[in-house]
Each structure stands twice: as C-alpha cells, then as structure tokens.
Amino acid sequence: MDGGWRLAGWQWRFLIEDLPACLLGLLCLVLLADTPDKAARLTPREREALLDELAGEKHDRLRKDFWAAMEDVRVVMLTGITFAFTISSYGIGIWLPLILKSRNLNNMQVGWLSAMAYFFVTIGM
What we know:
5 helices, transmembrane, mainly alpha, MFS_trans_sf, 2 domains
C-alpha cells in the first residue's frame, strides 16, 4: 500500500495498526468508570461490597524519598540485576552481530550464530 492515497508505508501501518488502538484507549477512558460508585453496571449490593472492601484496605505505608529507598539492600540488588540484564541484552542484541560480521561472515551465518546465543540463554533459564 506504499504510495496509495499519497501515504508512505509507515503511515499506512500507523492507520491500520495504531490508530484503532489509540481510539479504543480513548473510548475506554470515556466509558469506563473510575470508582465503583460511578459504575452503572454494578448492582447497589455489589457497589456497597466493593466500597466496603476498598475502605478496609490499609493505606498507612510511609512514603520514602529516593535516598531512603537506596539504603534498602533489596532495592540496590534489584537495581544491579536490572542494570546487568539491560547491559547484557544490549551486548548480545547489538554488539554480537557486529562482532560476528567483522569476522567476514555472511548475513545468514551471523543470524544463525547470534540465534545460538539466545538458544543457550533460553536453556540456561
């Protein structure tokens, strides 16, 4: 459809795939209720049960600032794990094919060898 109605291929893709999702999101924003007392589809009994359940939830958690959160060992460990995962993903996804390509391999060989890394990672998980 590239060039039809003077639209580029990416513009057609946006119209076909993304625009309906955006419209559905806006429709949900307008039609869905924010709280149980505004939900028209609930019976009065269901509405009261939900409101009672929400009122009984605890909201006494203390809010902490950034530095207080960084004093928690769990936060630091999860931050390190996320950082290592991101760096290794970029390393395999971006740099491995470039390194393999520098070894004078063709595109098919680079693709298969790069896929082997993901295969072994999957087995390791």
